[in-house]
Write a structure and sequence with these properties.
By secondary structure, the chain is mostly beta strands. It is 12% helix and 33% strand. The protein contains three helices and ten strands; from the N terminus they run H-H-H-E-E-E-E-E-E-E-E-E-E. Strands 8-7-6-9-10 form a five-stranded antiparallel sheet, with no helix packed on it. It is elongated. The structure holds zinc ion (ZN). The site of zinc ion has 7 residues, from loops.
């Protein structure tokens, strides 16, 4: 006969109601019953953007949009990826995309990131970049256009910051404006 322990797993499901030792209360701390140290942590972090995004960011600084081509499925990816998630293999080549594209979708945004209201909305859009595969887009702002005049499929062009102000960031492009 096999004997099984009774209530196996009971210790995981039952709530712990008491801990050994003495609990430190907020009142104890305020009464300075315990030694404590106030310390401002001055932590600095650095991380690498990786091979693909590093070249993409360098390109933005130089006023160029770089994409990555997969010769297996024929897709051109932007932002560039060194690995094709469709084919499960490394991508093959760098391709220079253009700084023009089409509005894939957009939102008229009246709320700031801190949830405060905006008087004048910003236009946030996914832009399909010319030279990359269809539906391969980047998220950016639209400018020099009224919300009522934005249309899906509208041709747009990047408005770059002056070269001296660029930092190798997506904000090196100020916004995309309608291409007439
Ligand atoms: Zn592929």
């Amino acid at each position: 006969m096999i004997s099984r322990p009774k209530h196996s797993g009971a210790s995981l499901s039952s709530k712990i109601t008491s801990y050994p030792g003495k609990e430190i209360t907020g009142d104890d701390l305020e009464a300075e019953k315990y030694l404590s140290i106030a310390y401002d942590a001055d932590l600095k972090y650095a991380w690498t953007a990786g091979v693909g995004i590093s070249r993409y960011l360098d390109g933005l600084k130089a006023g160029t949009l770089w994409a990555r081509k997969c010769d297996n499925c024929g897709r051109t990816l932007i932002p560039p990826r060194m690995y094709c998630e469709e084919c499960f293999r490394p991508t093959d080549r760098w391709v220079r995309a253009r700084d023009t594209g089409r509005v894939n979708t957009f939102s008229v945004v009246y709320v700031n990131t801190d949830a405060s209201r905006r008087k004048n909305p910003i236009l946030v859009s996914v832009i399909e970049i010319d030279g990359a595969s269809p539906e391969m887009g980047i998220l950016h702002l639209l400018g020099e256009v009224a919300p009522k005049d934005v249309k899906v499929g509208m041709k747009v062009k990047a408005v770059w910051k002056p070269k001296a102000e660029r930092k190798g960031a997506i904000t090196d492009i100020r916004y995309f404006k309608p291409l007439k």
